[in-house]
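Section 3.1: Structural characterization of target chains.
Under the original work plan, the team committed to producing a structural model for every single-chain target entering the pipeline before any wet-lab resources were allocated. The record below documents one such target. The sequence was received from the expression subgroup and is listed exactly as submitted; it comprises 185 residues.
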Amino acid sequence: MQEPSQRRQTDQRSSETDRQASRDVQNQADTAASRIREEVGGQVENAKSTLVDRAEREKGHLAGSLSQTADALKNSADNLDENSTPRQLLSEAASGLRSIADEMEGKSVGELANSLSQFARRNPAAFLGGAALAGFAISRFAKASRDDQTGSGTPQARESTTARQTATPTSTSPETSAGATTSGA
């Protein structure tokens, strides 16, 4: 049997060994966590960089499309009577699109997002109205694009669809037939 002092020394050595093992495990966990944070951080930065690059390219395409649309509106306006209301409206729309395109080309995606956010805070009603209008325009554009791809936007396709609808006989439901019989009796 061990003496109490030897038992205490053994317990102290065992406790110190346990504490050292715990510190070693904690150090290994901290090192592993640091490596994981570094790797994940690198992957996040790569993804962010890729996303920003793509957004910048798309911004350039959108700015180019807006410029082309502005030019088309301006050309259309130039073909109208000098003092006509449609000419003035088209000219104003062309000017507005041109200024938006120029602003898009002159700012980064981050700067554009900040500008949009500030505008939304200053003019929430105008922002929501513009968002609704943009959504409507996009949905109309998407529908027109889909119709063009399927050919259902052509006059011949519409005539064919109308002819099929009028040629299909309408069926009467049993309730309608029974109602007609009872009302006649």
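The first helix runs from residue 4 to 78.
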